Amino acid sequence: MTDAPILEAHGVNKSFGPVHVLHDVDFRVYPGTVTALIGDNGAGKTTLIKCITGIYPVDSGEFRFEGKPVHVSGPKDVAELGIEVVYQDLALCENLDIVQNLFLGRERLKYGLLDEPSMEQAARDTLASLSVRTVKSVRQKVSSLSGGQRQTVAIAKAVLWNSKVVLLDEPTAALGVAQTKQVLDLVRRLADAGLGVVLISHNMNDVLQVSDRVCAMYLGRVAADVPITSDTRREFLVELITAGRSGDVGLLNAAEGV
Known about the structure:
Layout: E1 7-16, E2 19-29, E3 33-39, H1 45-52, E4 60-65, E5 68-70, H2 75-81, E6 83-86, H3 98-102, E7 109-110, E8 113-114, H4 116-129, H5 147-159, E9 165-169, H6 177-192, E10 196-200, H7 204-210, E11 213-218, E12 221-227, H8 234-243, E13 245-246, E14 249-250
Parallel strand pairs: 3-10, 3-11, 6-9, 9-10
Antiparallel strand pairs: 1-2, 1-4, 4-5, 7-8, 11-12, 13-14
Helix pairs in contact: 5-6
């Protein structure tokens, strides 16, 4: 992990009518690091991610990417910066094969026709760079893949475009033990390759296994942003999620969310 974050959010506020969802949120992502974003339902995780990715405009606050202030008006601007998101529903087309999914909307052309050989090779190279060995052919239809394989394809789609930050929304939800291990190994390899990775998860075992830092949200505020060490316990994370405080770490008055 480097000292300088690649992605920063400072003092982000977001309201929907009279409901104040995010309160002066600070959030940082470092290259080569897996940052877990945790919190109970309604804590503000999804809203924060949608603000970062340009889906929601913020009421106030600042975003920085690679140390420079940035203003985004939509997801396209975010993708051009090098930030990709893998949503929980994966957004894959089951009737298309792996190559077609990876290049959907960004197809390569040659002489006015689809450059199939180039796209196939790029798909193979991307999966190989992620040490993916569970996919037999890049021409397999997504409908024939397991849950873990589909998650792998969705992650490969995110890193195919030379992304620098990848946000993963519950990547192990509904996966079995073996498939979960495959996906977590892949998440770790992304960080080891120098990418900044954000892992949104309710599974504290996954968080402890693969993350370097954890940002815990409580009632729209950041309760703690701390490194994960060998001494970090599941109970510590659960208390931050459910009470906004654990020991001397967290919000001063968690009961009121301040």
